[in-house]
Design brief:
The chain starts with 10 loop residues before the first strand and ends with a strand. The relative contact order is 0.34. The chain is mainly β and 138 residues long. The protein has strands spanning 11-14, 26-31, 35-41, 50-59, 63-65, 77-78, 81-82, 84-94, 99-107, 114-123, 129-137. The chain contains no helices and 11 strands. It is elongated. It has one domain.
Length: 138
Amino acid sequence: MMSARIKLAGVGVASLFAVALATSSHAATKDGEHYHVDYSISAGCAVGKTCTVTYTVTGKGGFHVNTEFPTTAKAYKAAGTAVTEVVGTPTAQVSKEKGVVTAQVKILAATTVAATAKFAVCSDDMKQCEPNAVDLSM
């Protein structure tokens, strides 16, 4: 069962957004030995607009999402200038099978996407847990 709790979620997100300006949605994936990450940004993202950013993490190779890893979502400054701001409170839905974090961000400036997803996966026997910070760029 998925949980909407943010404090005890298995997917942590800290993002440096410099969001793509386009009329279609953008998506990217990253794979590690024990995880798979999907990242997407909603269609029509442009300066002055609010867009939806979503991260989905799944474990692989005998690993699952750590449901006790804290979740956060932040917009960082790039070269001293804020390029986005988080609007409202991000949501997190997490189970051992997958973790999904969704945030609304207002685009202040920029033309490319650069983000970091923070999360942890653990082996099914709980003998190994791996915190990860995965660069996601578009």
